[in-house]
Write a structure and sequence with these properties.
- This protein has helices spanning about 1-5, 65-70, 70-75, 75-100, 140-150, 185-205, 220-225; strands at about 10-20, 35-45, 105, 120-125, 130-135, 155-160, 175-180.
- With about 240 residues, it is an alpha+beta fold.
- It has three domains: about 1-50, OB fold (Dihydrolipoamide Acetyltransferase, E2P) (Beta Barrel); about 100-210, Bira Bifunctional Protein, Domain 2 (BirA Bifunctional Protein, domain 2, 2-Layer Sandwich); about 210-240, no CATH class.
- The strands form three sheets. The protein has a three-stranded mixed beta sheet. A two-stranded antiparallel ribbon has the order 1-2. A two-stranded antiparallel sheet has the order 4-5.
- Helix 4 (about 75-100) crosses helix 6.
- The longest helix has 23 residues, at about 75-100.
- The protein is extended, with a radius of gyration of 26 Å.
- The termini are far apart.
């Protein structure tokens, strides 16, 4: 009787005995495909209304609806995997930079306005009426102060805020890997970043990438590709016909 009332997204407690499936009924496509549960009791812990977004990667759902019900959308396997991947990348970054003697130091979020490339987000002060804090566009000032303080190698996975219009590569709130090194040259910085990316791909993705990375002078990138971030998969380079 209870089983007939069960619908999608109901929360259940199912009590029974786990046994090995007969050979012809095993399903290699799922993690539990070698076993089955002989049900003795079903308890409905919480019923559910019809979900506004299907928790499935096999159905196309309007993006606006997905964003409206984000807490449901994040249960989709692909979205869950994205969150797991982000966590593992952040962990790999921390592990590598720690091995290179970097210190992870958090910098303030409510700061004095220091205009950079975009408008600041302003937060009114209750303690000082008429005055405002600004949300940081980057930790630039603070990491320079840390260098002066003798923290030779600093990093943080920093949250940044910029009041600007949405574009393909712009959004008001974003996260960046922020780092600073004292008494270092160009090759030192490139070496650390290359090592971090190599470690990230190897430990998270299981992919070995060749080091050092290929390098291209800025003038060559502009002359042959018309961009300072050329797509090297594109083999039709520009040619000056003058």
């Amino acid at each position: 009787e209870k089983a007939e009332r069960v619908r999608s997204e109901f929360v259940l407690a199912v009590i029974g005995k786990v046994r090995v499936r007969p050979g012809e009924t095993r399903n290699a496509n799922i993690n539990t495909g070698d076993v089955e549960l002989v049900v003795e009791e079903i308890r409905i812990l919480n019923p559910s209304k019809v979900a506004p977004v299907q928790v499935s990667d096999y159905q196309t759902v309007d993006e606006a609806l997905r964003l409206q019900y984000r807490y449901v959308d994040l249960r989709r396997p692909s979205m869950t995997q994205n969150m797991v991947l982000r966590h593992r990348i952040a962990k790999a970054v921390r592990d590598y930079l720690d091995s290179q003697n970097f210190l992870e130091i958090e910098t303030p979020t409510l700061v004095r306005s220091t205009p950079e490339g975009a408008r600041d987000y302003l937060v009114p002060s209750r303690v000082h009426p008429g005055s405002f804090y600004a949300l940081p566009q980057s930790p630039q000032i603070f990491k320079q102060l840390l260098m002066v303080s003798g923290m030779d190698r600093y990093f943080q996975i920093a949250r940044c805020f910029r009041d600007e219009d949405l574009r393909a590569d712009r959004q008001p709130e974003f996260t960046q890997i922020d780092m600073e090194m004292s008494f270092s040259g160009q090759d030192d910085v490139l070496g650390v970043v290359e090592g971090m990316l190599e470690h990230m791909f190897r430990t998270v993705m299981g992919v070995d990438i060749e080091m050092p990375f290929p390098r291209m002078p800025y003038h060559e990138a502009i002359e042959f590709y018309g961009s300072d971030k050329p797509d090297m998969r594109y083999d039709m380079r520009f040619h000056n016909v003058e």
